[in-house]
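Standup notes, protein team

Yesterday: finished cleaning the Paragemmobacter aquarius set.
Today: chorismate mutase structure.
Blockers: none.

Input for chorismate mutase:
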Amino acid sequence: MKTPADCETMADIRAEIDRLDAELVALFAQRVGYIDRAAAIKAGVGLPARITPRVEEVVANVRRHAEAHGLPPDKLEKLWRKLIDWSIEREEGHLGQGD
């Protein structure tokens, strides 16, 4: 693993981006495991996939984390809302509420 400052060539940069992308996909896979488990729990207690107050809590958390890391919170919110929508669609599929 090289820091951005340690990268001297585009090959170095590309290798690190590819490494990070693999790590991000692995993290998304872990997140999906929790989404699937949430769907199972929700099915057992009669909750819907979309719980708006929780969606807004997640978005607020992401905005806070983005600001703490010097990233644009509006851009991260937009990206995360897509992730949340995808997650809810997945849950709806498990709950028999999707298409």
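Follow-up from PR in the comments: The mean pLDDT is 96.
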